[in-house]
Amino acid sequence: MADEPGPEVTEAPPAPDPDHETMLAALRAGLGDDAVLEHADAFGDLVVRVAPAAWRDAATVAQRDLSCDYLSFIAGIDWEPAAREGDEAGGDTSAPVQPTERSYGAAGSAGRFQVFAHVESTSRPRGLTLKTDVDEDAPSVASWVSVYPGADWHERECWEMFGIAFDGHPSLRHLYLPSEFEGHPLRKDFPLLARVVKPWPGLVDVEAMPGDDAPAEPAATAEEPS
Amino acid sequence: MSTTGESPVPSLTVERSSMRHLADAQVGVELDTGDMILNLGPQHPATHGTLRIVVRLDGERVVSADPVIGYMHRGYEKLTEFRTYPQVTTLINRIDWLSSFANEVPFMTAAEQLMAIEAPPRAVYIRTVLTELSRIATFLLFLGEMGLQVGALTPAFYGFRDREYVLNLIEAATGGRFHPNFNRIGGLKDDLPWGWIAECRSTMKVVLDACDDFEDLVLGNEIFEARTQGIGIIPASVGAGYGVSGSNLRASGVDWDLRRDRPYLAYPEVDFQVWTHPDGDSYSRYWVRLQETREAARIVLQCLDQIPSGPIMAKVPRIIKVPEGEVWVETENPLGQMGYYVISKGATGPFRVKIRSASFSNVSTLPWLLRGVYVPDVITILASLYFILGDIDR
Amino acid sequence: MTLALSIGWGSTLAIKTIVVLTVIPLGALILGYVFLLKMMSHMQSRLGPMDPGGFHGWYQLVGDGLKFLQKEDVMPAQADRRVFAVAPAVVVMSTFLVFLVIPMGPDLVVKDLDVGVFYALAVSSLSVVGVLMAGWASANKFALLGALRAAAQLIAYELPLLLAVVGVVIQAGTMSLQGIVLSQQHGKIFGWGGLGEPFLLTQFVGLALFLVASQAELTQTPFDMPVAESELVAGYMVEYTGFRFLFFFIGEFGTAFAFAAIAATLFLGGWAIPGVHGDWANILGPPVLFAKLMIIAFFMFWVRFTYPRLREDQLQAVAWKFLIPLGLANILLTGLFKVAF
What we know:
heterotrimer, A: alpha/beta, Beta Polymerase, domain 2, five-stranded mixed β-sheet, disordered C terminus, B: alpha+beta, Cytochrome-c3 Hydrogenase, chain B, three-stranded antiparallel β-sheet, 15 helices, 8 strands, globular, disordered N terminus
């Protein structure tokens, strides 16, 4: 396999999915036009960003009007690029290097934190990803427990991993981590403790595969496992 | 663990009128008893790993149950941010370790979608076959060990014995029984060895016979029926609201299977039936999984007939950089619906991966499901939900 | 039986004591090895122990016993020390006491009590006390749950056990075990004495009841709620290690041995072969009894490895709503037939 750049993705934008249009219309009708901020199509799935005040209502609309009775997950995103020391060119292979400027994904974001959830319908092939922004200084959104009982554990995990509080959750306590744990691990400024304890050794003692070029410097980027 | 500190002092005030009803156990005797808190786990033969359920008992009845998870939390979502895409495979293999191959498939599919690469058809078919083999392996273990949890010692051994054939197949193809690490972005690592397809066909016959054995030995057993019918009923709406998926939800009558409804891999090319059961109790969950094991064997046989020849790896750059984008891929894994929400920023590794594992949601129903059941029923319900700790704790 | 030398009662007592004390562990060992280790393994498509002792691992349990004996004596800190220590002894003691009345030959019985059967069943239920002691003194909630389940179960299944035996007693006309064996040996089926008259033929309901009830008395699957391995790990025995656990083990399999022997005596004719009397019966009696009880034990253990376990309330329902009425009906019919014929 010769070295070649990744394939360029140039194609015409796909025709709007009629089911997506239905879902958007129902959301707008149920929440109001200003609550539905942005939407996008992520490889066939509809991603909709709603205003934080309409978070719980979005769940109700999805469940009642869009027949999305199945809760897949609720989780958080931290868009802040992680601060890393060194880079691949400099020889630090401890982790893939991410872009250093902050950029947002499908349907955009208003700030650093977001909560996103995916709900689906068991009676028809339809799914919906909902996102909402979370205020960085006072991270808190409404809880979905009254709409989807399964939100209980997902929100507990989101809280302990990101520090996002959920209004109306019966008991926001640690799920995975011990109760005395301090900090919110999935935030980008929380280091990977294993790497702090022992730095990543990088590429060591790699023999060239027969027929391949020998690696020029030992500090080449991490190779695929074979 | 100590028993209650001071022994309860019973105040036996039996009214004259209740003397006539002494045969009735619920006579009006006021005993000042406290509830007993029992820790099931984290070391316990019934909890399939390090799951701890703090159960509050009134005699043998559960008043409330609170599962405590996280004893096996390895921080996968954090770890994926420090790995390249191929390296993530070794991580996610170990989420549901009984059907490891099935864990890799959605993530590889996600990366391939982001890169706009399609795996060649032969690779797609082989992926389907291996996914169904891992489903068979997991379910054979379930069919055996649910009998064990209910008290029958023997089916567990039969389950393990028949599973060996399937694991041998997986090992012959991939090199690993449990953690094959066989998927690559764009296809598979290697092609199938000579004679594998014929061996697979004969193994599927063994699997189908084993399913018949289990149907006679376990499902037909009156005591098994008495222990599992009517126990742990999950209504369809409650299940969907909790995120219960897979065979558990189908056993509650919900006709929803991602292989048919959101097809992926080679499932559009094969005919298979989606099995549902209206009852939603532990018996129906066993029944559905038994039928699905048979169905998986039939899917494998169909795929083996249809495997095209060709390359097993698409043209993929050596250093894999996945373009910017977000994608959600979900698959019908043996334990339920597993999905990966991959957010990529164009680097060699993902920016954020949200791993949606089935057992997490299945087990979250336990506080609701375990109210008012007997202690033996707790074990039956745990066994019938069929979770893997790695899947809960990630 | 006339012996060339006369043995005083003291020596006789000593011999009898030694015999009982060796027969129980030996019997427990044999049952454990043949059925638990080997038969269960083969039924589960595996081999069981193969190495210890060279030939199919026959030495396994002996080695296990010796291993248990040299283990450290561990007691939970909050356990009730004296009760904890004595409980296994109580369970084993009841097993030993049952053997006093089991005849192995016309003269080979420690003491042929006139109320033999009654005594045997009464004494075997002493183990309930031991189980309760063990569960409570362990200071462990799982043990407590197991002990409470055991108490309810063992008491509930005493009745079907007894009712099953009453039919035999009516038919034999005596409660003495030796008398029951002799009446089977000398009995005739429709005038033919070739097979004697094993009560199996007429008391098959009683035999079935006895087997089911003894399965419950031994806390074996499908009635092993007190020792539910996948829930309570080992139930009331969970805190026991070392030689105390060995006592429980011997108690469990020794009692299985005893119950199988009682069933063989009551329903299959015990040590008797029709036509063999006197000294030959004394020599052949023990092997014959052993063979018969192995057949009974085979069924008991076969059921153990096949069936799942009943939940506690289902177990009680089976005893009270099904087995006891069946036993009463059996007694009624037996009495009618005895009077009529």
